[in-house]
Amino acid sequence: MHNSHTISRRSVLQSIGGLTAAALVPGSGFANEEQSAGDKPMPLYVFCGTGDHLWGSYLDPVDSPATIEAMFEWMSDTYGISRVYWRGGQTMMWDRHYNFITHNLQSADWTQWKRHLYRDLKINEAAVKAAHDRGMEAFIYTGLFEFGVQPDVGVIGPYPFEDEVRVAHPEWCPVDRWGQRRCPGPISFCYPEARKLIIDRYISHIDEFGYDGINFYTYVENCGIRYEDEFGFNQPIIDEFNKRYPDVDLCRDKLTEEHKHHWYACRGKFVTDFLRELQAELSKRGKTLSVIIDSKNPDYAQPWWSQKVAGTGIIKMDWQTWVREGIVQELWVQLGPSKNQCETLDTLEDECRQHNVKLTVRTIDPFENTWRPYVEKGVTPVAVITWQRNGIERITHRPTDAGSFSDTDWKLRLQALKDVESGTLEIPAETVASLTTDPHVLVRRRTMHALKAMKAKSQVAAIEGRLFDEESSVRIAAANVLATVNSSNTAQRIVEALQKNDGFQFKLGCVEALTAIGESGLAIILKGTEHTNYAVRETCIRSLAKICAGGLVNKTFPVLSEIAGDNDEDEKIRCYALEGDVNSRLKLNRDQQSKLIRQLINLTDNENTTLVQLRATWGLGHVHGICDQPTREEVVSCLARGFRKYGDGCQRDDAAYGWRLFGNALLNQHSRGRNVLESFRKQTDDKWLAWLAYEVVYLPHRFMKIELIEEETAIEQHKQFAPAFPGYRS
């Protein structure tokens, strides 16, 4: 099978992670770090991701104009970077064109945080301006097939977003052979109207923000496919296939390998049509079109990093036609084992050189000797600026010493801190702490990291002071440090800081810090659960939930239970309390377990707040192991009552996805729950109830896991078990 194997990010790092960065000297391409100011650096591009760095608190956020301007300055000054692939452009388009689901607990908060950064702080505009001010090109980095996912694929909560086009035109999504199930992620380019709408969107953004080009990756970030040939049976694709094979029924006949390859090519033909039409518009504006090629299987769409199959299914990436027709101006070879990357570069090289198409390659370390011969042939390595280890970790090539901490060049001060953090420079903690009030945002932020590495408990007060910094990334870094280095006063200082700043990532960092402080700060945390300030209350309750799950149940479980049942409390806070109770279930005594189960049943049956009800339903899916037999029967009956509500005529605000949580919770009750679902599937009075039960049992989705199945098995199951298809529900 094509694209049946990929390499996880972890395995990639393990396979090529032991590489050494070097700077450059004239004429050689690669040399030592004694680079002079007059040396011409090696051509080098960078990719700047803003996804993970705006999601968790463990990575340095790219979250302000000052941060972005500083990053671009040192990239230009130290490495002569000439092009930036900026993923923030994708986020901007998501904000404008996607429907966001508010019932996804954490993603809803994340969405609001991103909107603040992009709408209020205007970090997208800042990135393009900073690049152009430094003579760099700025490209949108976005997904060729990434248009969000129908909400039921999210499982633990609804998938957080889906493109308005997929919602308005479900018929434009790739469909299965029965025309029933939509492929999560893509819009099919076999429809001219769809191609035009998406092209107009890209052109509008390029015109508005002044990007120099667009760069497409070809994977989709979801786990919604079950086998590689599940989707791609839209009628225009069938018609294209039948031009060569008029007597073959693409949907029903068993296909030969020849038939399959042609089908993949037909799917790819419409991708080429899209790129050709997009390029026609880009060329009018002098803009560049770039596409990322999988390093292992360059002829097909990429799998997502850790997945075994491509979430798009198998789609031919006809790069030869793209190159020969001048549709693309650049092909980028994706990260992977360097052996595969080199083989793909060798495959692409002659064709690209002949037609003047640029070749680039994403690397762990752009200065590693593997890339030397390719750089000499005109290939440009791409470093990942937001990875901690990326080959361009040095902020300056100047050596550091104690005097660097007072140098006028902020880049040298920052490098000195990095050297302290790595252990290559020994400096007293008080000297390092003197930079906590440095005028430069990246210096203050890195000071936090250095003090953490030093475990500098003597400087806790200075660290706590940065909880109030004007820059969010410094506040976040301070919170992360305080999870390791703290004092008896830290919990109170966190509470004070949260009253002034309530950013998504800052709250995450404060949750981790308060959780680490644990029992010694419990009095402050418990008091914070009643605070009038929402951010304080939320953060303290989330910390309390983690502390409870860690085993301190007697002092925490009763508080969390009370909060979960408080109808006057915010619904998200109630959900965090419920999560803490459920995650603590194995550490509770029998009376506490009984109380938890009783509360979950009550909330599932009677709660009129959808978010809380769904979280309680999720909780019931995890209590099977702590229930006696009569209670298990009661749980199953409760879940069955809830599932029935999604049948014909359902008007619930979660009609498109809530059933998945109820259904998965029923499956977790083993044979009894499955039997209930099967009874729903077999009945004929309620078509939607039958179909949804079929989806839960035979089209399963689990959190961050592809439920792979053999194609023949899937076809047989549909033939044997599928009820009448009731249509699409939005």
Structure description:
- Helix content is 49%, strand content 6%.
- With 730 residues, it is an alpha/beta fold.
- Among the domains are: 9-384, TIM Barrel (Alpha-Beta Barrel); 628-730, no CATH class.
- It has an eight-stranded parallel beta barrel, surrounded by four helices. A two-stranded antiparallel ribbon has the order 3-5.
- The longest helix has 28 residues, at 257-284.
Task: Write the topology of this structure.
Elements lengths: L8 H8 L28 E4 L16 H15 L3 E4 L1 H10 E3 L4 H16 L2 H11 L3 E7 L17 E3 H5 L23 H18 L3 E5 L17 H10 L12 H28 L3 E6 L25 H6 L5 E4 L4 H17 L3 E5 L9 H5 L3 E5 L25 H13 L6 H5 L7 H14 L5 H6 L6 H11 L7 H9 L5 H14 L4 H7 L5 H16 L7 H8 L6 H13 L6 H17 L3 H11 L8 H16 L13 H10 L2 H13 L4 H12 L12 H11 L9
Parallel strand pairs: 1-2, 1-10, 2-4, 4-6, 6-7, 7-8, 8-9, 9-10
Antiparallel strand pairs: 3-5
Relevant terms:
TIM Barrel, alpha/beta, flat, disordered N terminus, eight-stranded parallel beta barrel, 49% helix, two-stranded antiparallel ribbon
Question: Care to give the gist of this entry?
Answer:
The protein has 730 residues and is α/β, with parallel strands linked by helices. The chain has helices spanning 9-16, 65-79, 88-97, 105-120, 123-133, 164-168, 192-209, 235-244, 257-284, 319-324, 338-354, 372-376, 410-422, 429-433, 441-454, 460-465, 472-482, 490-498, 504-517, 522-528, 534-549, 557-564, 571-583, 590-606, 610-620, 629-644, 658-667, 670-682, 687-698, 711-721, and strands spanning 45-48, 83-86, 98-100, 137-143, 161-163, 213-217, 288-293, 330-333, 358-362, 380-384. Among the domains are: 9-384, TIM Barrel, CATH 3.20.20.80; 628-730, no CATH class.
